[in-house]
Design goal:
Blueprint: H1 2-52, H2 54-60, H3 65-72, H4 74-93, H5 95-113, H6 119-151, H7 156-179, H8 184-202, H9 224-255, H10 264-287, H11 289-309, H12 313-328, H13 330-338, H14 346-374, H15 377-397
Helix pairs in contact: 1-5, 1-6, 1-7, 1-8, 4-5, 4-6, 4-14, 5-6, 5-8, 6-14, 7-10, 7-13, 9-10, 9-12, 9-13, 9-14, 9-15, 10-11, 10-12, 11-12, 11-15, 14-15
Amino acid sequence: MFKLKFFLSKRSFILGADEEKHKYTHTFKGMARFSITVCFFLAGLCFSSWASRIPDIKTLLALNDAQLGNVLFSLPAGLMVSLPLSGWMVTRFGSKRMLAAGIVLYACTLSLIGLVTSTWQLVIILFAFGLWANLVNIAVNTQAVHVEKLHGRSTMAFFHGAWSLAGFLGAALALLFAYLDVTIQLHFLIVSILISLSMVLLYKNLFSGDTASNTTVFFARPDKFLLQLGIIGFFGLACEGAMFDWSGIYFQKIVRPPAALITLGYVAFMSTMTFGRFIGDHFTNKLGRKKMLQISGVLIAFGLTMAIALPSLATASLGFMFVGFGVSSVIPLVYGAAGRSTSTSPGMALAAVSSISFLGFLLGPPIIGWIAQTVNLQYSFALIAVLGLCITLMTSKARLIQ
């Protein structure tokens, strides 16, 4: 009888321990996902805070359009310079440490932007802003890859949706501060402090244990799989960048709605891109990454074809909504697939894919402008539709995307 009681109590203890372990794992998964979501949001808030006050900074420094364009190039220059270094740092020191350090430096640099008094100061600080932006990008996406593996399903699009949502809220916050006559300096300082304090609170919930102390290579030469992902990402970011920069111009020159509705195309695109990222994981888990990428390319091509062939307010807006849905999942899916590479670490794989993809974001908008200047804007938007089809075709040839 005593042995039976001892056996039952021992069994209960073991079951209790297993249950507690399961509970801890489940809790960690939930906290990790929540923390990474907030980190994506903080990164988006930092960037949108800067972007929303660009007109005010332009006025403050008395810059003309050409001068502003030259100054703004320093940010993507910083991004490009840091691409190989960021992958190495994330792999060498771990995505948890680099994400924490990167977000704090990103936020502090934002507060410095509010203190500039000359153009050369803004150029230097924006270059640094680009450096930290990319370090955060590689680190937070590496964390997202680990969370995906913990959950065993796609969660990347939801994380990117948090970044997009922060873009809306950051712009709304800027409007509120401008209405209340809050200075740029104070605006950026408040956001910087909020982001830094949030990072301190979130740090303990981030994934750790992905360091590789023997890393000596600064840039991983992409294998065929990563190269294919990079090219798909190139097409995706070229479409995304072109829509960011030219959707308003397209409505102004081609659709020609009332002045108050010129931004409707951009709003239509941004709203479905953001919403698409929050629902994208559901369809990815049902259909698979490959089919989802193929559908995304078709949606981009279909939406732009509609906007080009039927450039009325209703049809162009609807077309841009299709484009938003199409663009929404491309980069999250590409990054998620890259992070699962078996040939290199997630940080190095993401850096390699990002290096190729980001060229599309840089080259897409100016190419659209050159074609529009030579022929017309409708023909240049037809190029974006072709790039959408290229996403579908390239994905069909990439055998390793599941």
